[in-house]
Design goal:
Distance between the termini of chain B: 16 Å
Number of domains of chain B: 1
Structural class of chain B: alpha/beta
Number of strands of chain B: 8
Strand order of the largest sheet of chain A: 2-3-4-5-7
Radius of gyration of chain A: 14 Å
Number of helices of chain A: 6
Oligomer: heterodimer
Order of helices and strands of chain A: EHEHEHHEHEHEEE
Number of helices of chain B: 9
Number of domains of chain A: 1
Number of strands of chain A: 8
Distance between the termini of chain A: 28 Å
Strand content of chain A: 25-35%
Largest sheet of chain A: 5 strands, mixed, barrel
Helix content of chain B: 40-55%
Largest interface: A-B, 31 and 40 residues
Radius of gyration of chain B: 19 Å
CATH class of chain A: Alpha Beta
CATH topology of chain A: fumarase
Chain lengths: 171, 287
Amino acid sequence: MEKRIIFPAGEEEILSLAKGDRILISGRIFCGRDAVLPRIADMIRDGSIDSAPFSLEGGLIFHTAVSRAGVGPTSSNKYEIESTMEVLSEGGIRMHLGKGALKAETARALARNHAVYAVIPPVTALLNSKTISRKAVAFPELGMEALYELEVEDYPAVIAIANGESIYGEV
Amino acid sequence: MEKFDKEAMIERIAETLVKAGSTFSEDKMAAYDRAVCQETSPLSEWAMQAIRENARVAKRDASPLCDDTGIPHVILEAGKNRVVSGQMLEAVYEGIAEGLRRLPGRPMAIMGDDAERISQSGGLNPDSEAVVPAPFMIRLSEDDDRLRLCVLMQGGGPEIRARTYRVFHRHSMDVVIEEIIAWASEVVGQLGCSPCTIAVGVGRSHYEASSLMLQAMEEGNYDRQSAYEKRITEALNQSGVGALGLGGKTSVLGTFLKVGPQRASGVRIVCMRPCCCFEPRRWSVDL
């Protein structure tokens, strides 16, 4: 039985999740990958995120490009993605959504910041049928690798890392 | 000179590309059906059910199976009674471009000079059809009257983890098979998009091994697996990686192995590509 979560989500709801939980994701989510996530992390570090026209609080970042072909997870263990998860969590992101195993130190950093990591099958056709709207909200010059906001309904995913515990074991 | 209807050919090639990017072959769907029935990990079973559902939606909507729609690779097979002209090759390029517009393909062509394309600093071309196909592979068909074109869409993740390298065979097929298993064992878990299909070509040069690997992707069939193919699949399924790395019995769906001519030498050149859960994305048309 899946848990239905609507984003932005409350911290309590995120903390109730455990590794292996199957979830359905709805609401407004962010999409970004290698090119844009380090820039968002820099905005958190220098404080310029406070004047951004979007809020990361209670948010989800889906590690994907957004093109006319649709969306689908890229490997979350790419350096530019995994290395930014801690600071993005400090900035308010509560769920990181992608694919592939992450390091134990990343799992610990997520736990410290009350954030979790979920994996989503690369089911682009299915996800397209569950995507209601999409718009670029930052760094549009990056094209399909800009920061996007999507409104979605019932994206299927499974919690891979929660409370410092990973379904992949120690990596 | 063999006459052909250029517009009709462009249309058929465009349709073929869309099919390649959006449709599972019957043997692939059947392989997933078997894997779902046999899987004991609930999460792996869930992931493979989602992959099957995705295939149904993609086929219904003629839309991409994966947002990495891949780089088009074309294999042309011509019998001795058929003529392949420059005009025909031009129509193939135009058909591929039209297919990418329709699918639609991910606009991922990098613009600029050599250094800008390497460093990805020249900007992205916004047009799907700017993704040009890889150089075509052409071979003689055993059927004198056949002119068949196959389109394969090659995603980026498997290219990161593929390997083409020499193997000192020590006069044993077992040595080569075990080396293939060792290479694949390192990368099946890293791919993320498992269950994989392991495509292998064994030849005399790096070019030939890669070509044979591509031919293996074109011709391989999940319902007809050789003893060596089964051995590779079964060995890799001992890893417990499972679908999407979620654990389970199904890390690899099948293996497609193509062994070409070999040279009198102690070395074999092996190309191994761990194809993702949607690959081979392939479709063929008789022209």
